[in-house]
């Protein structure tokens, strides 16, 4: 692991430890009140969810056209993190929606597309594990499809008018709310980088162990 990993992990832990205080001292939103504070975890996790789907898709493209196994390992790591951050997004979203919209779930364009993207990431992992020979390339195709879904998720609320907030909400936040949001975005981004680096490292170690086993058998 690189030398910066442990210091970065300490910084990330400190940020997460401070985040409840940062969020608790945030002013309540006029209509939602205290429930709005779920937004500080929901939005960053959603961004990491979409970012991870893009990372998985780009790495899969590079693997398909370049054949570099390191790109395949990066795609696998990103797919797992897409599932993780997608789960956080899909759990925190309904908690917010229940108070904001009066329902836990509504099949609007963004929520449905997000669920589809999360299921694609799950499909990628299932195909890789149980798909047999050539499953890495088949899974890469799924990852590319998942990446293509990301712009649709982002712009869907602007194209189809639903009760989901527009993409212009974040730039319009008051300063005392926006800096707290970017604090949480920084926190989640650092967590993503650390988990991604650790997961790729584990995959590389597994590949080395597999190579040693093959060498012993020959």
Give a verbal description of the structure.
The protein is mainly α and 218 residues long. It has one domain (30-217). 78% of the residues lie in helices and 0% in strands. The mean pLDDT is 88.
Class by SSE composition: mainly alpha
Low-pLDDT residue intervals, each spanning 5 or more residues: none
Query: What amount of the residues lies in strands?
Result: under 5%
Euclidean distance between termini CA atoms: 30 Å
What's the tally of helices?
A: 6
The overall pLDDT average reads: 88
Helix content: over 70%
Helix/strand order, N-terminal first: HHHHHH
Number of strands: 0
**Judging from the principal axes of the Cα atoms, what is the shape?**
globular
Cα-atom radius of gyration: 19 Å
Report on the biggest sheet: none
Number of domain modules: 1
Task: Give short descriptive properties of this protein.
single chain, 218 residues, mainly alpha, 6 helices, globular
SSE blueprint:
Elements: H1 5-24, H2 39-66, H3 69-100, H4 109-130, H5 135-159, H6 175-217
């Amino acid at each position: 692991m690189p030398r910066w990993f442990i210091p970065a992990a300490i910084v990330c832990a400190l940020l997460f430890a401070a985040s409840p205080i940062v969020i608790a001292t945030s002013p309540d939103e006029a209509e939602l009140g205290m429930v709005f504070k779920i937004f500080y975890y929901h939005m960053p996790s959603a961004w990491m969810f979409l970012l991870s789907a893009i990372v998985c898709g780009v790495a899969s493209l590079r693997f398909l056209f370049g054949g570099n196994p390191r790109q395949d390992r990066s795609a696998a790591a990103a797919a797992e993190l897409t599932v993780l951050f997608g789960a956080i997004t899909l759990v925190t979203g309904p908690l917010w929606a229940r108070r904001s919209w009066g329902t836990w779930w509504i099949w609007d364009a963004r929520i449905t597309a997000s669920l589809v993207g999360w299921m694609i990431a799950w499909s990628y992992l299932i195909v890789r594990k149980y798909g047999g020979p050539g499953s890495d390339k088949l899974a890469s195709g799924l990852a590319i499809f998942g990446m293509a879904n990301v712009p649709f998720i982002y712009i869907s609320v602007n194209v189809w008018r639903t009760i989901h907030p527009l993409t212009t909400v974040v730039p319009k936040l008051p300063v005392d709310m926006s800096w707290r949001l970017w604090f949480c975005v920084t926190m989640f981004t650092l967590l993503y980088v650390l988990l991604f680096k650790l997961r790729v490292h584990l995959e590389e170690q597994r590949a080395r162990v597999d190579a040693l086993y093959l060498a012993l058998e020959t």
